[in-house]
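Help needed: design a sequence for this.
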């Protein structure tokens, strides 16, 4: 299942609730909460630059379902 990724949005306060290992990884993910919604932040580290993208925001329960799908390799 493909996710839609957008340039990182600016939120006043973001809490990272869960994350994948980022040591020695080119791409890692974080489950974030902000403003009553949740989203997945995807960071791609390159040699020249790092790109940060956000998924669509969802209600927290739906975001956790999507997070499990990302961890299981069922969504990207």
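Sure. Designed sequence:
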């Amino acid at each position: 299942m493909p996710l839609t990724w957008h340039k990182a949005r600016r939120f006043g306060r973001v809490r990272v609730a869960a994350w994948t290992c980022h040591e020695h990884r080119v791409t890692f993910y974080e489950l974030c909460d902000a403003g009553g919604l949740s989203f997945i932040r995807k960071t791609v580290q390159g040699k020249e630059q790092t790109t940060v993208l956000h998924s669509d925001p969802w209600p927290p329960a739906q975001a956790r379902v999507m997070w499990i799908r990302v961890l299981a390799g069922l969504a990207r």
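The radius of gyration is 12 Å.
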